[in-house]
Specification:
The chain has seven helices and 22 strands. The chain is an alpha+beta fold. Helix 5 runs antiparallel to helix 6.
């Protein structure tokens, strides 16, 4: 099976900011008539900070770690609300107005129970993952998902109008995910999704929490979040990372994915022809890239890191592709299109492709660029089962 890819003027000055945690308070009312909105969910996306508004619409998020977050408010009958906030050590007070939701009729798609189950199993593999941690993930309410498979485009789409609740008994989190859209493209071999997540601690005894602590650290070390934090702290080598300049070019002997899919489908299903089918299968197995060259001397942090005018926000810049090696873990998956020199150890390796001229990330090590950079290799395996909240710190 071909691996999937996951879609994510400055002055240099890396530094570590030591700041006290902050408190966010506010009140949620309806737009226009200004009535309080009780029992609305207020949370920082992809973090562990969440609350429910009181009868007067008020809420408090306490002890929030500094960084940039997306604050989300959601409740029945109103449009979801979100805004980006920069948390320092000063209290933040917000007045939030929610707009009444206009009832829209959704396209009705009728499918058999067997089709839904098949689509759901694919969604579960590609959204939650197939790692050891995924085996300990229980989806509490899978039927809130709207699943549509487009056979002609080989695309699976998924979305939901309420939280998809996943109990991750490997890492000790209950993850509540508002999935706005999810697309798995079987031709381009890409997965993209958008949504908001809230992490809640699962209850557990002392022994269980000790196991969760170790599992969380295993998921964190070597991750993209760990890399970006190490980069802005100028600790790449100490933390086990190497970042290299990498160049490569598309292999023009290999046809594009759409043509390959069309030819294979034709000679396999429409007008069966074994010789033609084997010919196109052979072409599909060619590597996507050639003329690959890795600069063996790794970058220093100062060569690729920039500080932006916005406090706590950093940029990564590099001319070609960024080849990231984590030397403290061995890679257990073979990636067909990820280049690996014969004399390089079998370490976890990821390749970053830019969609813009730079990658923006915050002090929590979370990418805030839109669109996000493209990850290949180790980081492309990271799914919900291995996802940690943005405010996670190893040792906590």
């Amino acid at each position: 099976m071909r691996p999937y890819w996951i879609i994510i003027t400055f002055i240099l000055c890396p530094f570590i900011v030591l700041a006290q945690n902050a408190t966010i308070t506010g009140k949620v009312v309806s737009a226009g008539i200004k009535n309080p909105v009780p029992r609305a969910s207020v949370f920082l996306s992809n973090a562990t900070y969440g609350a429910v508004t009181a009868d007067d619409g008020s809420f408090t998020l306490a002890n929030v770690k500094p960084g940039q977050y997306e604050l989300v408010v959601t409740t029945v009958g109103f449009e979801d609300y979100s805004q980006t906030i920069q948390v320092g050590n000063a209290p933040i007070k917000l007045d939030i107005e929610l707009t009444q939701k206009v009832l829209m009729l959704r396209e009705v798609v009728i499918s058999s129970a067997a089709d839904w189950k098949k689509n759901y199993e694919q969604f579960r593999r590609e959204f939650i993952g197939t790692t050891e941690n995924s085996k300990l993930c229980h989806v509490v309410n899978p039927h809130i998902l709207n699943l549509i498979y487009h056979r002609n485009k080989q695309q699976l789409e998924a979305s939901g109008d309420e939280f998809l609740v996943v109990e991750n008994k490997a890492l000790g989190y209950r993850t509540k995910f508002l999935l706005k859209n999810f697309v798995s493209d079987g031709i381009e071999h890409t997965i993209s999704y958008a949504g908001k997540a809230l992490f809640e601690e699962l209850p557990g005894n002392a022994e269980q929490k000790k196991i969760w602590k170790q599992k969380r650290e295993d998921a964190y070390y070597g991750s993209a979040q760990h890399f970006y934090r190490s980069l802005y702290k100028d600790r790449l080598k100490e933390e086990g990372f190497e970042a290299h300049d990498f160049t490569r070019f598309l292999n023009h002997e290999r046809p594009d994915e759409v043509l390959l899919a069309q030819k294979i489908k034709r000679y396999r299903d429409i007008t069966p022809n074994r010789d033609s089918l084997m010919y196109w299968y052979k072409l599909s197995n060619l590597t996507k890239w050639n003329r690959e060259n890795l600069v063996r001397l790794p970058y220093q942090s100062m060569e690729i890191l920039r500080k932006t005018p916005e406090q706590g926000i950093y940029a990564v810049v590099f001319p070609h592709f960024l080849y990231v090696v984590y030397t403290k873990k061995a890679e257990t998956t073979e990636f067909k299109d990820v280049y690996r020199p014969l004399d390089m150890g079998n370490f976890e390796t990821s390749i970053i492709t830019l969609y813009n001229k730079y990658i923006l990330f915050d002090m929590n090590g979370i990418v805030i660029s839109n669109p996000s950079p493209l990850y290949e290799g180790t980081w492309s395996k990271a799914k919900l089962a291995d996802l940690l909240p943005v405010d996670y710190e190893p040792g906590n």
